[in-house]
Amino acid sequence: MFRVCVFCDNRLTRKENVTLRMKKVSPTIRDVAVEAGVSVATVSKYMNGTQRFSPAVEARLKEAIERLGYRSNPLARSMITGRTRTIGLAILDISNPHFTNVVKGANRIALQHDYTLLLVDTEENQARERSLIEALAQRVDGLIVSSRMPDEESQWMLDLNKPLVLLRRSPGLPIPSVGIDNRLSTYMLARHLLNLGHRRIAYLGFGQARINDERIRGARECLDEAGLTLDVHDAHAPTAKAGEQACSRVMLGPQRPQAVICYNDLIALGFMKEAASLGFKLPRDVSVTGIDNVPYGEYAAPALTTIDIQSEKMGELAMQKLIDGLAGRSDAEHSMFEPRLIVRESTAACG
Amino acid sequence: MFRVCVFCDNRLTRKENVTLRMKKVSPTIRDVAVEAGVSVATVSKYMNGTQRFSPAVEARLKEAIERLGYRSNPLARSMITGRTRTIGLAILDISNPHFTNVVKGANRIALQHDYTLLLVDTEENQARERSLIEALAQRVDGLIVSSRMPDEESQWMLDLNKPLVLLRRSPGLPIPSVGIDNRLSTYMLARHLLNLGHRRIAYLGFGQARINDERIRGARECLDEAGLTLDVHDAHAPTAKAGEQACSRVMLGPQRPQAVICYNDLIALGFMKEAASLGFKLPRDVSVTGIDNVPYGEYAAPALTTIDIQSEKMGELAMQKLIDGLAGRSDAEHSMFEPRLIVRESTAACG
DNA sequence: CTGAAAGCGCTAACAC
DNA sequence: GTGTTAGCGCTTTCAG
């Protein structure tokens, strides 16, 4: 018993016949081969541009593919080639505009090289992080990972057997990475505030971040040189909400600071909003700075003084490094972007 | 000639031997089968929990898998099952916090159902949109798509042969969708402004968006009832930058509005910043509203009055619909979220 | 230039 | 309970 092929009006084997019962099927390389009267190998070579063809065959192939609407199955292809043309990107929180920009930059470069981005948002959830990334690693050619896990606990990443790029400095791991000079960032901010005449300077950090210590160190170094000490506080999350919540603790305590360096822009934005609610006039009563240069610091009131860490460029470079690695041009170094101070209205001379 | 298996100390066929030359290999189901002294079918069933086993076999499997660090290859699995446990999400611009929230919501539900998210950011690029989405469709079980393409030109989406959910109302397409009541949104905003005593009300839209017309209509309807007309302007992009650029045109023209309804929050934020630069006091000189309720409208000055369109819930529902569809519980309807007015400080009584 | 055939790593009948 | 076997859709030698 024979049936007519839904695609090509040719006869089918029993197995192919089954296909007809499925709701919707895509034509396979065999359908094209039959339709064009060539072998599957020929179709494959044509699809991959591996070879040249006689005009006759080429025309028939072209038409058959067009008529059937054939698109080769990337999964089957990947099984053989071992490559998926997909890159995994694991970030801590897509809600944070810093990471949004990283994604944007990474995505742009990926697209340029015909890679697709597989995104995983670990939602700052340390527990799930590892299993999510391990699952991700199985479906991609390489990964870019942002994680809070200490280097010593990140050895398992090496067992993923996939090219990796980290979004942080990781001296303890033989993995290329990109990041920013955190120490210099806060050093610059502290210097800026000292120049404005501030003496009582506080730092509102986020202790769970691996880079928090570096940021504290930078600010401390700068203040030390001036014989001052840094008043360190902690927000419980790297978010605006957390900045709001921490504000009264910082501003209504015994040692009210003249200026506050925040771990990032989100905390700074929340801090400023709450400070205004508490009746402080900014920047007159307190200068505030962030780090990241997220797009909306510019639209806050007062507009936020911050450090541009070039998030988008960071994503671009991370992706470029990974793709280079995939192409054999390995580069196991750490690349550090230079922080750039953006002075806006949230910092002013101490009065 | 025999060689010893890197994983299991057992003998290898010629083919398996080749494997040794590759840089890094992952063990296959066969390695596990050999190591545990069972058949590949048994390993497969164990991995999928399809069946129960004798304690002896189970123990050996467990140990072999552990020792080899075996993880089953999802690609090979997908080839057979026809499912990838991956959902594609195509959005217009990850930089827009509205979409960020959609991603967040969609991702959360996907994770809950053990799906992974494949993200494509079309970057508002109409030309690449189609090919990007077609490529995406090949690697996923279903897609959520946000696009500016008119329904009439979106027929090709039906040929993707994949379950789909659209992030917009598409009466011309037999595809389930989620969105918001755009007409009601601007109607509510206009009503709010009328209540505050404003009479000269402008709309700063984004003409390329499919929903722009609906938003105009809503505001018009409301003003009509009061015998007023809407002054319509256009921004060239749905971004803060574009809002800034459009501001002087709106505010320094002959018919200066008392209130401006912006297409979205980003345009509104840019507009407010520029208006302040031009010397206007907000909201005294002009009331401004946005739509989307992006997280940072709250931290702008003045804090932005807006419409909450529940972006994150939208992402959640879109994903839930898709997953339901994948599970056979189809639901081809359009779900509309109710707009909710959030009054902050950017709108005030007309003085 | 074109085709035949051997699998990639895994699952799904179907035997035993 | 466990094993055998036939492919999923495609690429890739290797002949002709």
UniProtKB/TrEMBL annotation, chains A, B:
Organism name: Paraburkholderia piptadeniae
Protein name in UniProt: Transcriptional regulator, LacI family
Alphabetized UniProt keyword annotations: DNA-binding, Isomerase, Transcription, Transcription regulation
One function term, GO molecular function aspect: DNA-binding transcription factor activity
Annotated Pfam families: LacI, Peripla_BP_3
Cited SUPFAM superfamilies: lambda repressor-like DNA-binding domains, Periplasmic binding protein-like I
Gene3D superfamilies membership: 3.40.50.2300, lambda repressor-like DNA-binding domains
Enzyme Commission number(s): 5.1.1.1
CDD domains referenced in this protein's UniProt entry, alphabetically: HTH_LacI, PBP1_LacI_sugar_binding-like
Domain HTH lacI-type: 27-81
The UniProt record lists the keyword Transcription regulation: yes
